[in-house]
Each structure stands twice: as C-alpha cells, then as structure tokens.
Structures
1.
Amino acid sequence: MSQPRFDVIAIGNAIVDVMAPCEDALIEQLEMAKGGMTLIDTPRAHALYEAMGPAREISGGSAANTLAGVAALGGHCAFIGQVAEDQLGEVFAHDIRAAGVAFVTPARGKDLSTARCLIFVTPDGQRTMNTYLGASQYLPAAALDETLIADAAVLYLEGYLWDPEEPRLAMRKAIAAARGAGRKVAFSLSDAFVIARYGDDFRSLIAAGDIDLLFANADELAALTGLDDFDAGIAQLAPQVPVLVVTRGASGAVAIAGGERAEVPAAPVVRVIDTTGAGDLFAAGFLFGHVRGKGLGECLKLGAACAGEIISHYGARPEADLRELVKG
C-alpha cells in the first residue's frame, strides 16, 4: 500500500457560523433547545437572524473544523463539501484553504444558498445551534474524487451530513473507496437527534466493520446503545469497533482500543467562553496523534489540549498556535 499524501480527508457540511452572545431569556423566547442543534428552514433562519444581536461570521462545519485543527497541528488534509456561488461560499472556501486544507469541490451554483449555522451563545458558554443546510445537503456522489480519498490515511465522516439523502449516498461511496484502498474510516456521531433518525444505519456500518474509529459524546453513546449508564454503554460498544473515543465535557474523555482503556481529564481553562467545536477539535487532536502512531493516552491528551483551546474563545477554528500548545 502506497504512502498516503494526506493524513485525513473529510466529508462534511460546508457551513459558515453566524455567532452572537445572548441571555438565557432569549433562548426561551425563541423556543430553542438550549445546547442542542436544530435543522431549520429558510423562514426560521430569517426570523432567528433578525432576533440576533451583533454577530460574527466564522467558517465552521463539524468536519471542516476538525480538519482546520489537524492542519494547525501540522497535518495534511483535504475537504469534500459543497458551497453555493455566493458571498458565504467564497468566505468558506477562502477560510478552509487559508487554514492549509485542500478544497476542490465545485460550487453548486446560485439556485441555493451556502449553509449557515445561527449560534446563540449564553453566558455559561453553551451554544444553541440552528442550522440551515442550503447547498451542502445536496452534495452528490459525483462530486467525490475517489483518487483523493484513496490518497488519505483516514477518511473522516460527520454524522450531521448523513441526514440528507444525496450526501448519505456520497458517504457510502466514499467508505467503499477508502476500504478499497486499504485506508481507515473514522465516523463522528455528531448529535443524538441524528442517531434517533439513523441509528440503525450507524449500527449496520459498525456491524459490517466499516468504521475503524468512532467518535461520540456521552449523550450520543447513550442514544446509540440505548443504555443511560456510561460504563455499560462503553462495555457494549467498545468491542464492536477497533477504536472508540467518547468525550464527557468537563469530565474529560475515554478511549478504548483492543481491550486497552485510557482516560484523560479535561484541559484546564480559565474561563469557558464558547463550547462550539469542542468535540470537533478533540477529534482533530486525537486523529493527528493516531495517524502518527501515538498511543491512546497521548492521542487523548492531544484531543483535550485542542478542545481546551477552542472553548476559550468564540468560534470553532483555532486561534492559538496548536503546535506550541501541545508541546507543553
């Protein structure tokens, strides 16, 4: 098997985050689920944007955030996702390339808008996300470059993009391409609501041996296994995947591989500003360590350090020098 040109190639939503601080009262007034992610249509997107205070536009998208983190650590990455020919599409393409990530997926055109996520951040750092998927939910299988996929050590997929039909078919095709090239497949469960809709699909992928690294948080673990007890969920799921990584917010994270279990506490942070992207950057640190053959404990430490950096400021893309950060 040839040496891959990329450490990680990811398929995900090409989204621009629109973020604004708010009080808890506004969350209640707008009838949003605090701390969760809700898919919204065009009228709801307009209504929520009107209700927002002064906002910042920052390129996001779960898998894209992870790649930005891997690239910031010194990794070589490529991204597959679809924007529209509009201003936000230009913002996303510029930002992902400026982060050092290869991005060559053609824009869809002007019939749809580039995806955006309206994020309301409460004083406790919790982010309430409202996502309009726009052009990203129509990523066709034809947009995949199978040669590019075969040239990456790990194919990383975000569960969020499993919801629309076209990207779901594209990701199944990508899994086959990665498997055919002898590469690894990593999957992020993304959110409990995705599991509620497509848990059977994910369980089938796991049973078929199509997932080598599975990323989840405690809520997603419970949703996938049907077990509220954390350790019971770990015991059920860990034997089914080569590497299982489960984050627990302020309680740190756990990873299990081949019967080995490692744990890490959350990185100390003076003040939690915004938890947007914490899981994405944890995955970035872990994947970066994994492709370089680091042990479970070291991969977890890298993940915790990256997550700690991201929650110390607004936005889900690194602002500090991650290479310097993980030296400590």
2.
Amino acid sequence: MKVEDFVDPYLGKTWGQLGARVLTSGRQVAVTLGYPAAGMQAELTEALSAHLGGAEVELELAFSAPRGRGFGQVKHIIAVASGKGGVGKSTTAVNLALALDAEGAKVGLLDADIYGPSQGMMLGVDEGRRPAIKDGKFFEPIRAHGLKAMSMSFMVTDSTPMVWRGPMASGALQQILTQTLWDDLDYLIVDMPPGTGDIQLTLSQKVPVAGAVIVTTPQDIALLDAVKGIEMFAKVDIPVLGIIENMSVHCCPNCGHVSHLFGEGGGTRVATELGVPLLGELPLAMEIREQADSGKPTVRADPESEVSAIYRKAARHMAARLWDQEQAAPTIRMVDD
C-alpha cells in the first residue's frame, strides 16, 4: 500500500485523489494537506502505520490552504449562520476560528452582526479600544487570542444601539469587510446575524463566500429555521459545509445524569435529510457560556477539554470540506487549435 492510497478520515477519499503532497524517505513521511490538522498528528501517524501494514512511521504533517474564492490575500470566507437567535451562533463562530488557529491556520474573525455585535466581549477586547486607521481609510484589525478581528463593537460603545435601516447596515458591513487590512489569511470566519435578511443577502451577493456552517439546537422550531437558512444559502449558490448542533445534551455536574432538554437527534436528522454532514454536537454546559462571557472562549480557556476537542474536530472537518470542494471545482484550460 502507498501513502497516497490512505483514505482521509473526513472526506472518504484517498490523499492521492485529493491532491495531497506526499514525500517519503524510509520511515519518514511528509504530507501536506489542504486543511489544518495539527491536532491529529498522533492519530494520523497511528492510522497511517496501520495502513502501511504496521510499518513504523515518522509523520511530518503540514498544511497549505488552497487558493479558494476569497478576495485579496484572504483565501476562504466562511459564514457561520443560524435561522434564529439564541442558539449559540456567536460562541460557535469564535470557537471555530480559535480552533482553526490552534490547528495551524491563519485566521480572521469578522463580526457581521451589525445590530448586536458580541465578538469584542467574547475576545476580551477592552471597551473603548478602537482599530488603528492606515492612510486615512483602512482599518487595522485588532489582534486577540491569535486572531485578526473586526467588529462594529470596536466602533461604538456597548450601550450604543444601531438604529439603522437595512441598506445602512449592509453598507457598514461591506465597509468593514473590504476596508480592513486582513493581509494573508487562510480563513475569514464571519459571524452572521440570525435570520435570512438584508445582511445575509448582502454578504452572499457581494462577497465571494466559500461556504456556510449552520448552527442550531435540537429544538423543533430551531431546526425548522435552520432548514430555512440552508435553503437560503442554496438559492445563492453557497455550499453548506455542515451543521453544528448546540445544547445537544446536558450532563448534571453533581450526579452525572444525562438529559436531552431540547430534544434528541434533530441535528442528525436534518443533516441526513439535506445531505450535509453534522460537524459536531456541543453540550449544554455553563462553562462554555462563562468562558465566552469572560473574554476567553473555551478553545483558549481550556484547550485540552472534551468541548475544545469537539470544536477542533468540527473546524478540521469544515476546512476539509472546503479542500474537497476546491478539488472538485472545474478547471478551464485555454488551448490553441
């Protein structure tokens, strides 16, 4: 068996089919994947050894993001969306961004929730801190926990309401997206406002979004709205990379009793019906909320926890789907007759 014949655990295709770069020298194997996977070093080493008949392997894992549909030096734009509010979308967005960073990618985070920006607080950015202005028209993103971040919350105080009509909000989103000096990014995670309104349409029509992740809970009404969100992205030709189900289960910290407070299996059912993967199921846990509210989200506050592992696995799977998507894109060649 060859290294190129190894089947990727997320995509079900061989590394050769996916275009992974492979170099071998004795037991040393260097593999460059199209998604960041630093957290899988030990797991992939063991699996590759088994694939090669138990041969001893020293795996050197690298990452190179495909070019993607982005703009400037931003390779991929990923929208994190939800059909309704209150499902933990912003918490999911910031933890996915931090998970990609932990896996070895260069990541930015744009808070596109113009009316209710929350990423400034979740990233621990001090109130009143403003982005620097370059050449009188460009914003320097604020760096927090390894991310390059931009949010309307950096422009106003926490108590300032954004009393804007749809076109004004859409214009503000375009401005902070296109006039921010993101520089070289593998992924720009966009925390969308809930629903399917003006901001969503502006982003999908004006910005080269590579894919979307839908956040929901197992609750029937949330799942119904999640389906609407998926259908909206389908109408504007943005592929849905997967679903993340929040508040899937509650485990009592005192007695260990497990309860499905909002229903069970809803995310799996919707994912199966619509043909998209379920990227992860997050528990209803107080520490996730407390860590985000304190300005140090779970992936940074408790990187070795089970919850952080779920976020990192979801981020890898999401990025792997983008890699597969790029490989499947048609290539046009110009030839002389």
3.
Amino acid sequence: MDDDQRQIETRAIHAGQQPDPETGAVMTPIYASSTYAQDAPGDDRGYEYSRTGNPTRAALEANLADLEGGAHGRVFSTGMGAINTVLNLCESGDHVVASNDVYGGTHRLFTQVYDQYDVSFDFVDMTDLDEVSEAVHSETRVVWVETPTNPLLRVIDTAAVAEIAHAHDALCAVDNTFATPCLQRPLEDGADIVCHSLTKYMGGHSDVVGGALVTDDAELDERLGFYQNSVGATPDPFGCFLVLRGVKTLPVRMERHCENARALATWLADRSEVQRVYYPGLDSHPTHETAAEQMDDYGGMLSFELDATLEQTSAVVSNTDVFTLAESLGGVESLIEQPAAMTHQSIPREERIAAGLTDGLIRVSAGIEHVDDLRADLERAFDTVLG
C-alpha cells in the first residue's frame, strides 16, 4: 500500500521515519550534534550545521508534512517563531488581514512588532465573507486565518477565504493548532501555508515547546526555509524527538479530547450560571454548519461565558482541582484559563470586548481524564464562588 493511501492513525506513527540503518532503532534517534564532518570543503551529505538541518528535525518535518497532506515541512523552536517566519514574507507597505479573535500572542506580534516596520493589519470577523472581501486589497500579502478561533471557537470557511485571498494574489495561511490534521487539513481547502504550535496537541504532554509550517509549494518552502535558517528560531533535536513521540498517539488522544469537550459543552449549556457556550459541535454555535462540513470532529477546546464579574470569574478558575489553571492547551491534562486576564490580556480592553472576549469568558482545554471528574470539578468551583 502506498504511504498516501494509509490512514492518519498509521501515518502518525510511521510517516517520515524509518528504523535507524546503523542500529535498527525503531524510534528516530536524538542527533545531539551541532555540526557534521565533511569529506571536503562544501561536500553535501545533507547536513552541515544543526541550525540549518538536523536528522531528528528532518524526520519530524517529513512526518508533519505528510499528516497535513503537504510536500514540505519546517519546524521551529516555538509556534510564535513559525508565525513570525510567515510575516517575514512581508515587506514595508504590505497589508495583512487576520481574524478578529486571534491568539493574543499573534495579535501582539502583528500590532506591536510588525506595525513598526510599516506592515498594516486589519482584524475582521472572518465568518462574514463580505467583510473579508472588503478588507483584502492589492497591498494585501497574507490573509491569516485561525480556525477554530482562539478563544471563541469560530470555524472559518477556509476554502472561501483562500479563494478571496488568491483573487488578490495574497497568501492564505491557516493556524490549524486547535483542530490538528486529525480533524481538518487546510491545504486540501486551498490554503497555501498551515501553521501549528507543536506545544499543544501535536506534542500533547505539556513538556515541549515548538512550531511548524507546512506547504505544498516548493518555492514558498524555500523562502520559508531561508528565514528559518537566517533568523534561527529552530528547535533542538530533543524537542523534535518529544514531538515525534507525541504525534504517534495524536489520533487516539484527539478522539478522547473531542469526546470530553462535547460532553462538557452539552452539560455547561444547561447550567444556570452559564450565559453562553462556545463549542462548534453544538447546534447553537453560529458556525456549526461550517464546522460540520469542514471538520471531521469538533475538537477538544471550548469556551463559556459566566454571568459574573472579572473578579468572580477569576475566582472560579482559581478554585478547580482536576482542571489546572494555566495557559496553553492540548495536553493530556485539562486546563482552564480566563482570556481577559491571561492569554488575551495584551489586547486593549475595548478591542477585546468588541471582539466578544468578555470579562466572564473562560476557556477550557478538555484533557483525557474521566469526564465525570471534570464535570464534578467545575460544579464545585461554581458552587464555591457563585453558590
């Protein structure tokens, strides 16, 4: 059977990896070398210096490219390093259109770093395709899509947005961190670049930080590779090893993440303390139909809004035992956080409120614990604070 005919559960374990030819080791070794011997100056064995290339990293890049259905993969020391590399494609005077509820770190990079280099940004509701069309123009270089978005879980019609971007010769880049290739593959829908924070579901165990970019375009990959090497935001081989290990169980973990998130969302929707639940798997979610068409399942992330003040909401997220109060997401353990005071604090309050990120908003990363324990933990927190 050809590799591209295998199911994702099989490819997650085998793609990009072969037993080590020297020892037969099943798991890709950690090549902890900073430099490589050459038979003569400039000879090409494929590796010369580990910022430029490393065998452990190469295995991970091939694995991730395969899972996303792309031809080329690049990995980075952080997800922000990957996003920054996409922005390196922009020049002074270029324009970027982005989702209006992107991750706070992405918003900070766009508005506080690249803005000083005369790259302009518009943040729009990408569920409104007319709004996207109005924002994209001849100077637009990149249309940056998060889907599902962070933290309101809006699902963007990737194919439609990519078509708008391409009509103006702009690139469509999709942050696929929340969904992973188990649930959607943006390149199949017309995206040019797929981005991941490997820290999240791909690593899956809250023990490694990393990022990745995947594309089908060889020329675009070469440009991304130039910036990857020149800027130097490349990962160490041990980090690559940890992500390779994590990816092997990704499909199995994602099944449980989705199952738990769906159960929690349904339960929260019936709680009197909760004003609104944001989960694409609920019929009430405004982008449920798009999610049903574009995604294979609805993911392990959900958010909900309490009828509570900023202080009360802070107290709720501080009074859980099974859920850990922490930023990040996608690990085997369940995490809870308050975007207004944590992940999205860098966004000005007026802009944050206008985008729907209220003081009572709570974001949950559903882990793989037993869902009864997760429900009981939230119920205790509600009773303790809101009683």
4.
Amino acid sequence: MTLQELMQRAGVWRAGELPPRATRPSGFPALDQTLPGGGWPRTGLTEILSSTFGIGALRLVLPELARLSQQGHWIILVNPPHIPYSPALLDEGVDLSRLLIVDLPTKVQSAETEILWAYEQALRFEDCAAALLWLDDAPSLHMRRLQLAAETGATWGVVFRPVRFSSQPSPAVLRLKLDACPVPSVPAGDLLPHKVDVTVLKARGASNGASCRVTM
C-alpha cells in the first residue's frame, strides 16, 4: 500500500487536496485567478507576510473591506503600525462609520498578550465581518486560538506579519507572501501603478507556490 493510499484510507488529506472554502472576489482579477475558489476565504485567518514594510499589504484587502463596510458590517483594526489615512480609505470606498480601531498603549505591561486578547474578541464579535491585526512573533498556540475564534465568529481575520515568519507553521487557512516589484526609471513627476508579486504559501484546495503580479 502506498503512502497516498494509506493517508486516504485513514481520512488524512493534504491541504491542496481539500476542496476550496467559500470565497469572495478580492477585487483584483489576477489575484482571484491565483487564489483557490477565486477569492478571499469568507472565514478563518488569512496571513499576509511582507518582505518590506509599506509594500501595500493593506491596499490588497481594501476592496473587500470597502464592500463589507458598505453592507453595514463592522471592520476592526487591531494594533495598526500607523493610524490609517482617512481620505485614502474614503477614496477606496470604505465607510468610516463602520470602522473601529483598537490602538493599545505601547507601554502596557504584557502588551503582546493584550493585543492577542483584543484581536480574539474582535474575531468573536458577532457583527464584525473582518478583523485585521498587525503582529510580529506569536506562540503557535495563540495562533490556533485566533484561527478557532475566526471560525467560531464566522469572521474573516487578516494578520499582517514580516516575511521572516513564513517558515513557521501556521493554522491560517490562507498564507500569502508579498514582494515589491522592481520599479523602472521614469521621468520626474510621472506616476506608475503600484505593483506587488503575490505568492501562495499555503491554501486549502491549491498547490503552494502559485503566484501572480497585482496592480493596485
């Protein structure tokens, strides 16, 4: 009996062999063609790992956040590195009246524990459709708690982390790596579209390593 046959007989499946989760379009056709199911998972954790700070990771999820907020759902941001620029969010269609920012003081004792607790509560909040977290390192047990909270609350959780954590195991249903695209030389004053390369590190119903270039 082969390993594959043994795994199937025991009811064990690789992530890429499972059917994709229910999804929503991301707003970026190239990304939808790459993601299993054609878009963002409706629930569970999505982990976005960036090679460079300020690469545009938040911009990647803004179309979906705008759609959810316009439908009257709450969007909760926990521990953002900077307070989001309101005019830019409005330009993207985000309803600011449905946006809640949880900004914990940096001098709070056991700040990491407080941040993770606040995010878990956001994921379990009944009226929250999407909860975003900016996180550095975190114990695997805490990440599993967050994944469970996202499933229990039927919430789309998005966790932004540095790319150095890409080698660590993660319970997230989707993991993406973002890399900046080379910027060609252009005359002064000319503006180029912002582009990032997106690589799928982990996804249910897809093979790891699929990639695309997204223009934002």
